[in-house]
Amino acid sequence: QLQLVESGGGLVQPGGSLRLACAVSGFTLDDYAIGWFRQTPGKDHEGVSCISRSGGFTKYADSVKGRFTISRDNVKNTIYLQMNSLKPEDTATYYCAAGLIPQNMCVMRPWEYDDWGQGTQVTVSS
Fold first, then answer.
1. Which residues contact 57 (CB under 8 A, 6 or more apart)?
2. Digit-coded pLDDT (tens) for 86-104
């Protein structure tokens, strides 16, 4: 059974950093592209970042470029999202998701991802 579990969320002051982790099990990680999405109450999932199966292609939302970095460790079956210079507007529930997307690319369209984690809350506040 395919499973994704997010961790690393919490409360942080503006300008601070957090590293989210997405631990996967039940499937071969390098068969899937992985996306990070976030959601606030009353809004749709917003694409934050994604990484291709091989890890050679990454993509970021304009709002997080230069501040967030996505990476994957296929040996540990874990995907990371390093978030630096956090802003109050980054406050959201963050989800990772797995999608069978062609090998050398990824997309930030949530409907392209079939399997999702339960989410981890990130709150940026002083």
1. 51, 104, 105, 106
2. 999 999 999 999 999 887 8
